[in-house]
Specification:
This protein is elongated. The relative contact order is 0.27. 11% of the residues lie in helices and 47% in strands. The chain contains one helix and twelve strands; from the N terminus they run αββββββββββββ. About 16% of the residues have low confidence. The termini are far apart. It is mainly beta.
Length: 169
């Protein structure tokens, strides 16, 4: 019986020791990373094309600055606020020229994914066919903050407009 009590004490001590050890469970790649991406679209010369800027995994952004650069064959005609940042005030640049910055700010951050902004472009008449004209997005200085005034780590994905001879549909 004495041996059993010693064994039981030893076993319980080991269980207690193991149960109090910190466990670090992290995935190597986070699926909840905030991503801002620009769509890629096709168009024909002479037509305007709308390109959405999207956000995934919005943690509740309170303020943001995004800068867009685009190919010289593209002319930014207009920019319309989307629903993902509808709770924020948007400030457009005084002139639409590449690069241009858009700024959003507010008093409450809401975790809402979707379209941040719709950019409408016209394409130069002499634009080369089947060549993608880049539209890039950056976060200058990491200027995206959440509702707790913390910087939000953000991955950006560029898009493009490709001019084709014929657009189906």
């Amino acid at each position: 019986m004495k041996r059993f009590k010693k064994f039981l004490s030893f076993f319980l001590a080991i269980v207690l020791l193991l149960s109090s050890a910190p466990v670090d469970v992290h995935a190597t790649e986070s699926s909840d990373e905030t991503v801002i991406s620009v769509e890629s679209k096709y168009t024909v010369v002479g037509e305007e094309v709308s390109v959405d800027v999207l956000i995934e995994n919005n943690p509740g952004i309170l303020g943001a600055t995004l800068e867009f650069s685009y190919a010289e064959e593209l002319t930014l005609v207009s920019a319309t606020a989307g629903e993902a940042f509808s709770y924020l005030s948007m400030t457009k640049p005084p002139k639409f020229q590449s690069p241009c910055r858009f700024i959003w700010d507010g008093t409450d951050g809401i975790a809402k994914d979707g379209t941040i902004l719709t950019l409408k472009f016209s394409v130069a008449e002499d634009a080369e066919l089947e060549k993608p004209f880049a539209i890039s997005v950056t976060v200058p200085g990491g200027e995206i903050i959440d509702d707790d005034m913390n910087y939000v780590e953000t991955t950006t994905k560029d898009g493009s407009v490709t001019v084709v001879d014929f657009k189906a549909g």
